[in-house]
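tool_log.txt
---
The assistant was asked to compare two proteins side by side. It first ran the structure predictor on the initial sequence, then on the second. Raw inputs and outputs are pasted verbatim so the downstream comparison step can read them without reformatting.
(1)
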Amino acid sequence: MNAPRKSRAPLVSVICVNFNGGNILLQCVRSVLTSTVPVQVIVSDNGSTDGSIAALEEDLGNDERLVIIENHENLGFARGNNVALSQAEGEYILFLNPDCRIRPDTIERMIDHSKRLPEAGLLGCLICNPDGSEQAGCRRRVPTPWRAAVRFLGLHHLFPHHAAFRDLNMHELPLPEAPVEVEAISGAFMFVPREALEDVGPLDEGYFLHCEDLDWCMRFRQKGWKVMFIPDVSIVHEKGGCSRRRKIRVEWHKHCGMVRFYRKFFRYQYPLPFMWLVIFAVWFRFGLMACYLTIRERI
């Protein structure tokens, strides 16, 4: 009697938005193409000028699994991802930063977890720094205006054990032994079943860079989907690989994203004077960051 055939694994479309990623983009795509399941890799390039796309085409251009979209301008993270969605053919979509490296079985294991967790609309994994430590932000709490104020004032250090003053990031907590529901995951690695994506909709293009992942986590949860953290699947993320040369501009977009996020989801949940105070704190923080980065560049 013939042994039953193992069913073919579903196709996964992996979307990477690139902006002057250099050699790390090539490393990322190579790592995805070694996957143990069928993949389609879509690189959405936001007008890179560093030769990263030319290097990718030279090395892997003959691989039929690779699709390169040249946007000829910097569309931002959300729009860059959304442009690629029109060509995504997979039953699952993985939104992956180009400065990440995955293992051959990463995607296969995420598919297995997704099948076991049909209520999960958005799944993230353990994201590690190059030294192996857990990266802040891969499992976190949503930065509500109250939590932002707590963090800005440093109250999470003064009252570390009080529930009202808990820090946003959870990377210093013990790693769970099984998948757990969290409020938010990192935009560096977002694994999404197509059914959930079509229900919630694409990323909000009102964000240029940063906070679009938090926005998406909020929207998935509002639609009744769970956001899950998968601790037994890990990747390496060289954080900021595509944004190291424009630090002040990155901070500007990050703080614009924070203001949009607060206004979109919390403007009617807090007293207006408190919201004004939070928005002021956001721009005050940006001013401090801009001064610090300017002085640092001149030293």
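(2)
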Amino acid sequence: MINVRELRDGQRVFGKFVVRAKEAPREYKSKEGMYFMMEVGNRTGDILLKYWGGVDKEALMSIYASIDVGDVVEVDGIVSYDSYRNRLAIVVDAEKYGIRKCSENEYNIEDYIKVSEKDLDLLFLELMEYIKSVNDDDYRRLLNSLFSDEEFSKKFKYAPSAIAHHHNYLGGLLEHTLNVVKICDLLCKIYPELDRALLITAAILHDIGKIYTYTYRTSIVQSDTGRFMGHLILSYDKVRDLCQRLGISGKKAELLLHAILVHHGDSDDRVPVKIKTPEACALHYADKLDAYVKDYLQAVEGAVDTPWSYDRVLKHEVYTGSD
């Protein structure tokens, strides 16, 4: 397997990559012909791929149509520095090199999807300790009811948190959730007026809908349920149904559901109401802090070996510290 992080400008590449994303074919600006771009990678990282198809538009469209997101492709090309995007790319010139879709018996799935580098079993045990520390019988009963389900716990432990943004790998949801819980716990020490039981419970549950939002095999993709509903509503619905089943009602349920529903904040058009409680405010900023810091760390980790690198998620340059 090729280590994407070790690729260098001018290097010949012949290997297999999974397609993470694809853009529609475009016309050359200065001459006749077409090209298309894809984001490809493996569990070591991702890289841009540019396919220059020349004047044979029909052949280019045939190749483009044969490849879908999640497919593994065999690539023969040259690594080149893209000065416009300030990142490396694999350039495939149709006259010299090529790309083809691989059959399932030609690759191992484990080579193409990233997994957390942390010990997920230890992270899960740490999360269980936080559940034990919740000093409200109803909230603790709710959490124990959910995480005593082995099937749910397994899905939660290995689910990704995103496709392209923070913690976009298997185990990412558990990592992100535990980080948010730790930030919220610290806020409760700084502001003892906060309802710790409510805040810790909301932090643990705020993203559980992501279990149903994404599916994964060679790549993380959005499920039909995720596309229709989104993880905010899926998380809200799961917790609401559980509250009803366990007989948790009134303000106790409403405060918890409100914090989950508005954890993306007032500026997100998917959120139907404003933040109304200190605990909901704390959860929103704890979630945002962990997400943003991780986005920047991942941008630096995936950057080329230059002081400044453009990141496609953040949509601006980041300083890599490599000068």
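---
observation on (2): Residues 4-108 form a domain with the OB fold (Dihydrolipoamide Acetyltransferase, E2P) fold (CATH 2.40.50.140). Residues 307 and 322 are 5 Å apart (CA to CA).
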